[in-house]
Fold these 3 entries.
Entry 1:
Amino acid sequence: MKRIFTTPGVHPYDEVLWERRDVVMTNWRDGSINFEQRGVEFPQSWSVNAANIVTTKYFRGAVGTPQREWSLKQLVDRVVGVYTKTAVEHGYFATEEDAEIFDHELKHALVNQIFSFNSPVWFNVGTASPQQVSACFILAVDDQMESILDWYKEEGVIFKGGSGSGVNLSRIRSSKELLSSGGTASGPVSFMRGADASAGTIKSGGATRRAAKMVVLDVDHPDIEEFIETKAREEDKVRALRDAGFDMDLGGKDIVSVQYQNANNSVRVSDEFMNAVEKGERFGLRARLTGEVIETVEAKDLFRKMAKAAWECADPGVQYDDTINDWHTSPETGRITASNPCSEYLHLDNSSCNLASINLLKFLNDDDSFDIASFVKVTELVITAMDVSITFADFPTQKIDETTRAYRQLGIGYANLGALLMATGHAYDSDGGRAVAGAITSLMTGVSYRRSAELAAVVGPYDGYARNADAHKRVMRKHSEANDGLRTIDAIDGAIHREASKQWAECLKLGDKNGYRNAQASLLAPTGTIGLMMDCDTTGIEPDLALVKFKKLVGGGSMQIVNQTIPRALRQLGYQEEQVEAIVEYIAQNSHVVDAPGLKREHYEVFDCAMGERAIAPMGHVRMMAAAQPFLSGAISKTVNLPESATIEDIEQVYMEGWKLGLKALAVYRDNCKVGQPLSVAGKKSDEKAAPAEPAVQVVEISRPTRRRMPNQRPSTTTRFTVGGAKGYMTASSYPDDGLGEVFLKMSKQGSTLAGVMDAFSVAISIGLQYGVPLETYVGKFVNMRFDPAGMTDDPDVRMAASVMDYIFRRLALDHLPYDDRAALGIFSASERSAQQRGEDPAPIHTDEVIAELATSAPIEEQPQPRPEAVAVAAPERVGSLESHQGRTADAPLCMTCGTKMRPAGSCYVCEGCGSTSGCS
């Protein structure tokens, strides 16, 4: 072992500045405190969000007892202590000094957010619980009832522990084949119902994360069309039940009647099938037991059905079977038939994936060069630690235990690629960006397998290596040849590629001599929770989600900031400090770079994001995946996002190009394709009359605005409201003839600071209204403003509010603005949202009579309150300032733990509020 960052004789903790903090988490429904631990200890450099997530999710021991962990040091000591002790006991180190270096370097890397193990390591290692270190598993199901029932049981055990699983059901006979008794088989889709119900039940039973599962079916299975259309049909069912008055909202009491919603579905396509699609040929569907063709179909028609279903509901994805197995290191043991839920881990049945991810931005030097030497050493360190973990790990079934110990599959990956590319002035969708990504991925995997060969010399190759030696060496040569073909563009990727070439050469030499310790080494996971733990701006291989984000502050609250990668990128591109400040200020106000002062148009692409004014094109995502895939043992967790306007043909093109570019797996998501999604973005007003042409020269007389004072007697409405448990009153007064002219707010005792601030704010708004400032201007500025108190309200029209200001101006808009103006701002009443969900136009319901009735109706406090359970499960209208700025929705579910809208992380989702994920990171 070699030292990387530490100093002999100095403990790594002593080189870090530590501080004490209080972690207090409030309930999103009523504002009550649901977690509190004061005086926790973290490095000063850690963000509030990272410290909160580690405290609430990873610290072990009952809160309020002496056994409860209270310092990051304790957590890291607990985990690293087991790794070091196990490595010493199993002969990994030549000397005691090597063991100390291993121990110190791991601790330094973890407390400095250089890399992180996946969540199960933090949950379990060093505790009294089973030492489970794997996040996701691949199971196997045979065409026997006993095997099918074992599948249900094994998935249940895995879900109970908060992990996920994947399975291929293609061995099960189709509904078009006969049983030995003479009856007809049920088919795999029927058995999916039972597994789906099981996953849904266990998911709601209090596990650490929602159940995640993948179901795969081969494209030549006779039931493939039924499998493809399964989830799309369920979406039709949701529409019909909602139209009939059932509660089909997210978390609604009737949503449980919808089936097949707890799994990601993927079709395993072959080269034979894809070639048939290209050539317009027919394709045979084969019996499961005999392999004979029992039906032929038009390949293009079947391919289109896949794309159409994905267009309607995002499922199924595709997995490219021949590509996957062409890169398989252990084919003599068995084919790769399935993946984990997020599709990045692909290997033998009854195996598991043990993941860790490196924070790439930590290796970017001040001069914008990449610290290659440190990256190589950290990769060696992480691979060594990951291999040690398999030695002490526990597994949920005996079969998984045997396979994992025999093949020792690892999944090293990285996070923050998108931030690294932006910081170095590379556009994500560019040849330069792809060259950097390819070079880094090649270097990481080359070092990993080289270290695996070194470990094999010390503690032996994996048990299954002997029978698979030729195949494993062949795949190593394929990786090396792909590296030789990598085309570099800039100095940064050129230097990384040169080191990668050296590492692959050494890897092949040592592998021929020693064999390899691990059947797999690398993949790219979604890095959801651990990405937040490492304070990463971007997850996995993803680009930046947006240029503006929200930062939690010590003591509560949050502030909107421009991503800190942007100033660095601007300086790297040659802009002076005053130009940087002006551009950053423009981005803070507009959330995009279009027309930013002084920014060259050729540099716009550097700041393209996953969503927003300049969203990266779908094929940009596919090409980035293709740049990294040849250098990965596994695959990539990533969803290719398409705009709502995308066509079925667009999805067909993505699936076809993914195959041609050598991807192993691919999933798509068309914006707003889900019926039950939390938000639909309001479109701009249409059919507006064109403005008359202006004269060539126009003299405009600018007059000073005059104040239109309110009469002594005026109609008013008083609204009592609750936002995140905080109560208040709002009185809104109108001119007798037209328009809002006065607002008064009360939220605290008279004489308090808050009461004074609210009085002053009310006066400022009222005077502005009376001087002619349109209400919609205020609404546009204050809606989505985010600060505490925030959360659930008692208003059926505004279920969630980002702050008191967010609620107040949504309520004022609903009460005083016409429908068209509100629609342009994305503000709708409960009845209007229901009409939209039924596919109806809400505008016709706003007749003069209805508006008059609303104007004279009782204030909100006199209206019937919604049932408590309805409030708890309703999807929020508000999803955050980010989406409002970006002009589109980051389509994602609500967090089942804290109610915050999640954000994409690979093909899964992560909650930035509490760290919960929908997948396996």
Entry 2:
Amino acid sequence: MHESLDPTTTRPAAAPAPAVPAVVAQRDHGGDHAAVQAGPAAVTRLAATVESLRAELALARQDAAGRSLIEMAAGVLIERLGCGPTQAAAQLAALAEQADVPVLEFAADLVNQVAADKISAIARDFVSGSAERTDGPALRLRAAEAHSLAAGDSESVADSMLATALRPLGAVAVAIWAAHTDQSMTLEGSAGFGEAEARRWRHVPPGVSTPARRALDERETVVYPTLAQAGLPTIGQHEFTGGRIVVPAGTGGRLIGVLEVCWETLLPEQSQPLRRQFEALAELCAITLETGAGPGAVDDADREFEDLQRLTDGILDPCLVLRLAPGRAELPLEFAVRHVNPAFVDFAGRPASAVAGARLLEAYPLAAEAGGLAEKIEHVFATGEPFRTADMPLAATVDGVALHARAQVSINRHGRHVVVIWRLDDGTPRVARLLQHAQRLGRIGGFEEHLQSGQIAWNDTLYDLHGLPPTAQPIALLRLPDHAHPDDRPAIDRFLRTLLHHHRPASTAFRLQRPDGVARHIRVVAEPVHDHDAAVVTVRGAYQDISAQHWTEVALAAARDQLAHTEQQAAERNRLALQLQHAIMPPARGPLTLHDLEVAVRYRPAEKDHLVGGDWYDTLALPSGEILLCVGDVAGHGIEAATGMVALRNALRGLAATGAGPAQLLTWLNSVTHHLTDNVTATAVCALYHPTTRHLRWARAGHLPPVLLRDGRASTLPQPGGILLGALDHADYEEEHVDLAPGDTLVMFTDGLIERRDQSVQASLRALLALSEQTSRTQEDGTDDLEAHLDHLLRHSNADTDDDTCLVGISVHQSIHHELSTNPSQGFGA
């Protein structure tokens, strides 16, 4: 019968009892049970398969380790011979053949010759102490190292160490322990133990004394010839009762774990070279633990950081969470800032984003001073001892300027991280932040010049202002005239004389000529610094780039000149327009009597003086005996609108002398507007009144209808059709007529009286009708007062377009020469 292999060990397991006829496996699928039976032949095949797979796995691991070791040796040949990878591999095989040794052994010897580590030292000791060539420790340890590089976790590293380096020494099992700051330990990797045993010892709580704990406490290798002599519990204590060797594993002067090696019987004879082999293997374990390759190490590290992040976010003082920088496990240690809490305030005034993620010495390079912050952090990380002080100097450099502060500092280690908490003096971070922002926003560069030694200190902004690289030599104050515009040298000479000879603060502005040909407008301010004997030893000050301000002032001056010229032209044009408007329509307020009509006019200019409009009106007795009544509004403002208004008013006066009706007059006036003016459009109302019959004929060209007030009721006249003047080459206009009666009041107006931006024209007309009826009811003596009526309409108008307004009011009186020829009740609106 074949021996079966226990999958959790590397030793043959007990053979199964012959009396067991079958192994029954059951699976539950929704209530249905299916039984699969296997006989002894199936068990044998299964054991053979497991053994074959285990052999293939071991072979694959050895092959991976061998390839890694050969790649190391090939890399050495590439560096030494300056050849390519293919030539290096061929050269390695040729050299091994000439030496009559296997390639793997020759590769180990070659790596040992160029390496300066413990493994190479062990190899030299064995070679020098033995006359016979040995392929033992050198090859075994180098193969273990190569497999550690190829492995992905501590479990694989443990298997590799046992197979390649420890089993030839008689060891049967190995355990890799990770130590934590709370005195607990976790089993990160093991080989040779059963799965259940490894699971039981996955975590060792604080206070449990084990061989591994003793090695950590004593910080040296602990040797037990048999486990019974130790008298301490440990992994595999019931299975392997032979000797134990427990070696502390550390890197960078810090212990982070333990390597425990087990034998079934007594330990092999101890020697110094053998102990050095175990120390080399422990160092490989430490490297593996440092990179967090153990099972669950990534999850544990993430949970540790998340817990630490939540803890520090609740601290009200500035707090940094540091971790060891990647690739820096040797002394001196270097740390990176992994997290800053919400209360973090950089005493140098930088935002938290400029510190988080950076290396500690990149963010605070002055922390590397002897006895400074970096040294204290390194000590806490190596020993786990907390550090606290009530007064520690902190320093940082920003733009080449050193900024200093003092703070209470607390440093603690939490697993793989270090927490630094500082409490700054009140006002320190605020002042530093204000200084930093002021320099950035104001483009200010600071300098300090020692007069005796000639040493000059500039910050980075100053190099940028002068157009110089940071490695250039700063420019001394006495050489400043050589870099300025020739016209500005007298100003700089006065500045230097006041500063260096009269020892008083001074300032000046000049044009800086930079090496790149760019001219910048610079303002410099400086003050002398006196020593205890009142002698000037240092000059300090600042340069500020005021180019943007200078060119803004130049542009503003030009804009002011142009604006003044434009305003002068506009004022002249408005003056001419007003003069033209007043010449045609003098602002007379007195009423005009024509036959039985009383005519009054009101004109309200726009609220803005520059908006001279084109509103116009006219009242004229014609040769035919009729009276011409008209109101118009030319589109636009300014001199163009005023001249267009004059042209239309005069043209209508001439056309009215022909005796044509209102519709024909507007037809002719449309042709005049379209052909004889420059893109002028206008609206108008034209009416002819016959005094004998009191008959009124009227037409409109896109204008608002007149309002008739009769017997206390107001209404609009019918709206005949007609488009605005000048829109088309030819247009026809309709005509309406109405008979007026004594006491009637007719109001003709332009749109500036009623227009509002928030309501329609019809709503504005209804408001005007209501306002007219209200005016009629408020007259106390019962007689019509035309001027009071017009004043009331202007005063209570709710228009909001700031347009000019023209009103023509016509009141009909009883004629002393003619009897009423028609019944007034038959007129419009009776």
Entry 3:
Amino acid sequence: MSSKLLRGTFILTLGTMISKALGLFYVIPFNMIVGKEGTILYQYSYVAYTIVISIATAGIPLAVSKFISKYNAMGEYGVSRRLFKSGLLVMTCTGVVCFLAMYFLAPFLAEINIPEDDLDSSVKDVTTVIRAVSFAVIVVPVMSLIRGFFQGHESMGPSAVSQVVEQIVRIIFMLAGAAAVLYIFKGDIVTAVSISTFAAFVGAIGGLAVLIYYWVKRKKHFNSMLDEDKQQITDISLGSMYKEILISAAPFVFVGIANPLFQFIDTITFNRAMAVVGLSAVSETQLNAFNYQTHKIVIIPVSLATAFSMTLVPMITRAFVSGDQKSVNHNLNQAFQILLFITLPATIGLSVLAEPVYRLFYGTTDLALGTEVLRLYAPVAILFSLYAVTAAILQGINEQRFTVLSLLVGLLVKLSLNMPLIERWEANGAILATALGYSAAIIINIFVIKVFAQYPFRLVLRRSVLIIGFTFLMYVGAEIVYKLLGLFLKPESVISSLLMVGIVGLAGGLLYIYLAYRSKLVYLLLGERAASIKRKLRLPF
């Protein structure tokens, strides 16, 4: 890989990480401004919007960048430019159609979310909020395509800057708008939340403006490339290119919308199931706790796993296509082991620190409920990560069609079990149904990998036992430190919660790293990078 591409990949990864971090931590001031009622209303629009945005952004930029890069490498700059121009028209039409669909279907979406009149939110309120966020769908597809154009030219900076600016503009408008409505203009909570969801459109305009700036700045360079066009490909049609793009993008779209679809099932079934057992009064509070508040926290290690999984595809594809079974097995061994090595202790540590972590984000509102939900929900992130990685591996071995099958089976399991389990165990039942649905999808993916990649799981299973053992010892050590700190620190204080998270996290992390180095496991997984990390951090073991 060239130094230019390495630098570009680093810039894009950094931009994505900053954007995701901003998207996580804004919930703290947002919760303080709009309170529980506002966050409950916000999450009804959040899931539907996430599904639409995932479809628009999960596959298109990557697929477009792939084909622009392909034709540029062939010297056919005219073809890639023709693809880009037609893509702008297609994405504009797609954005407008999706906006109109979401806007006019808002009452229907609201009705399937609000089945009872005695809930805190009303159909009218949810309709207003969904319609406010739908405007963003006009801009996002076009913005995604332009990002793909820059990435196809190995120019990652514009996409990275665009992502960060989009998030910053969105968060500033969201927080300032909600605060202004409630505290300056003395408006109602529905208006405040509508302004907050409309912020997605304002943020998208900010991100698009950045991309337009870079386009104007580099237009002369892009046009100069057309002067070197070989013009040898004249018979390729836009229809055939779009067909290939859609086939290439589809697996990434399905991976991107998997989690939002599981959330959507909860959104449309949870209130109904709770009404059946006479718990409508607490239904929205519990739905908000696991489907929005704790989900925002749980998804942190999943984001790392998803980013990691996307880097696997070319490496595994190269080994698989060349018929190098040894390299395929080695790459898959590393992929599964590193995934478990990172996500297992992270999720278990999050479960241990559920109470102080929840308090840091959401204060003491519904603290007991939030703590219980986060403690149970955190380990499910392991399944989220495994699904993302196994789906990426299927793409790498050219069996991406099974991604659709596994997701549909997982969703069917979730849909079948959700209401009975919710009626039995409330929010915990919904979490259990999610875990079972993801498990079914992962089992199918693993079976396909074993059959089509002829991959033996023996080594991964042996190492998994070792990783689980180290994680258990870390859990015990973290629990001891947590209990001891509880004797001295007041749990009600935000500062105390921050200290608990920092000290317990550091203690547990150091114990886990110590065990990994002493057992030489980290050297087996990371090779020379493990020694380099040890030298840089000056670890004594």
